[in-house]
């Protein structure tokens, strides 16, 4: 990863899904996000938001175009190297939380550190610190099923940041939450941004999008409003 | 990305400004940024794998029981069948050995005369018993001879009753005092004659159980007598059963000395011996030489061939059938694990997607499912082996057998469970590793 390079850079990225009929979810998208930026990506359903997040998160590959992550061309990475980058440099927050229902809160937050090489002795202190930070230090032994939606999403945020990623990718993080809880999560994101974390939030909620320092709007697979 | 990753390199460059030679070297080898290798996230150690594989095993007890049931059944069936095969093999061998493989009989060779009569061409010495007992492998020996009494009457009533229907009298045998021990005989009442009776030629007799029935002798405490050719013999006991020489159950048995005195018995008919298991082949030559050193060919020796072939065949058949049955059950157990593991993979698609998203490689996902399957198989194997050993002991206790289970079989059974888990987990693990995180995460958990 190269110092000084944008954290994220899409160069004329197209993503097609073979049909029939063939669908182009992204059509020649070029976006650059600097290190430490807080960007929201909005757009109606089917505009290509999730496809873009999957490419940004190295979960999918562009059909055409280049994706540079921290100055590294993602197509130069093999499958294991992509997993390594996800483990060390990316954090994910999903709309559906994706917490493991049979593991308690602490175990859920510990999970990413299994794969990113965090020394065993550092894992639990880091997980506890992350949970303290999201205000769930008193809930570490709880199972996710016993928590409210907002608390579950805060566990997911703690899990994403405990391994100290450079980029946090959030896919509709407030999609399953009420307004008050959404505001709590957004406040948490602002704190993380203030700490220097690069944040990319995909949302269809305009209020959530407005909290970002830059907004990118997608429509029909193209960037309609570069923020 | 990153300041954190490049900090050591930048610090080194800053210091290198004061080191011209090092600076030149540093400038040369720095690769283009996009070619810089990324360290693989392979710090997922075996202990981590084991921790992840066992973390959720007990979280669904019902599912766990269902998963391991097949392996438990398979392994316990295997251990039980192998254990029972070993136990019954011991039992069968013991039975065959007791009934057939431990009896040696020496008889004088016979030849046919020109007139059609069969005559003995050799003779056993009267001291055959002590001569045989000196041989290693002989546990007990006795003399036995049928006393030829043509036209003699054997009865308990010394009255000649012409109105009585004619019937064949029971045969009369002469035997030495160790006969009962040699042929594994048991008395229903009374006692067997001893060396004193033999030496003094006392007029005593022991009846076989069927002869006693025919002669109407029910008990010996009333001191009944049996008349053989008009001579009274006190009945000492009744032989109830024998392991060899079943013809004695229908006979009147007298001491050898008595038969020699009263009926001029000229020579013993057979020398009967109980031998150690496996001593037959060796004793076959030695017995004839010990009894007729000048002409061992004049004697026929009937001795068993070590372990009976029939016993070996039965044991092999029993083992074969049991092992095939167990293998079938074990395959069913493996299919059970594979099915439940496959079901688990399908149920945990979201979890697999999450793990892949946060950095797990395909190999780590496959490893986790294989490890889970192996742990489940090992657990099933351990429980199955314990149940199998218990079943062998319980069945043996009920049948009054001696349980025989090789400890390595039990240990091997537990390990076999792990192998079944390994094989059964292979296909589901491959499926799990192939799941694309994008597809998996769409479902949610």
Automatic annotation (TrEMBL), chain A:
One of its GO terms (cellular component) is membrane protein complex. This is ABC transporter ATP-binding protein. It comes from Blastococcus saxobsidens. Keywords: ATP-binding, Nucleotide-binding, Transport. Residues 8-227 form the ABC transporter domain. PANTHER family: ABC TRANSPORTER ABCH.1, IMPORT ATP-BINDING PROTEIN. GO terms for molecular function: ATP binding; ATP hydrolysis activity; transmembrane transporter activity. The keyword Phosphoprotein does not apply.
